[in-house]
Amino acid sequence: MEFTSTWRIAAPAVLSETVDGEAIIVNLDSGAYYSLLGIGAEIWGLLEEGASLGSLLSWVGEHYAGTPQQIAAGVTALIEELLAEQLLVPGTASGTVPDPTAITLPADRPPFINPVLEKFTDMAELLLLDPIHEVDAEGWPHPAMPDQGA
């Protein structure tokens, strides 16, 4: 992976929301959903904003205590897993990267712990059956049009 590599969220198939420090990610194509806690949720948020690998490593190194090698291994492993699950795609990021100088750094940096992407498939069949997948230009939901030929 290059230091300047960037990615973008694999929208529209991938939706996410971060609530109380947990990123909840849904892949509508596979029906799987995912959870990232703590540092993983923070990295997901930075990826949504368009952070490159270099800016991710710099941000994590400023906010968490760990060796550069440990941080690089943990962050790249997470990105590789997100790519393998088709939640991210390589390419030009769509957002802007936050200015690291505008962020107040914590006095005591917590230790870096490798982020863990949890995958859940227990609702995959239901998510794949959901009629929201069949959205047209009018959006969803909308009333069915009466038969014109009757």
Put the structure in a nutshell.
The protein is an alpha+beta fold and 150 residues long.
Keywords:
18% strand, 150 residues, alpha+beta
Structure description:
With 150 residues, the protein is α+β, with helices and mostly antiparallel strands. The chain has one domain. A hairpin with a 5-residue loop joins strand 3 and strand 4. The longest helix is centred in the middle third of the chain and has 17 residues. The radius of gyration is 19 Å and the shape is globular. The mean pLDDT is 83.
By DSSP, the count of extended strands is: 6
User: What is the average per-residue confidence, as pLDDT, rounded to a whole number?
Assistant: 83
Estimated share of beta-strand residues: 15-25%
Query: What's the gyration radius in Å?
Result: 19 Å
Compressed to H and E, one letter per element, the order equals EEEEHHHEEH
Structural class: alpha+beta
Shape annotation: globular
Largest sheet: 4 strands, antiparallel
Low-confidence stretches: none
How do the strands of the widest beta sheet line up side by side?
2-3-4-6
Distance between the termini: 61 Å
Count of helical regions: 4
Whole-number tally of structural domains: 1
Helix content: 25-40%
SSE arrangement:
Blueprint: E1 7-9, E2 14-19, E3 22-27, E4 33-37, H1 39-48, H2 53-63, H3 68-84, E5 88-90, E6 117-120, H4 124-129
Antiparallel strand pairs: 1-5, 2-3, 3-4, 4-6
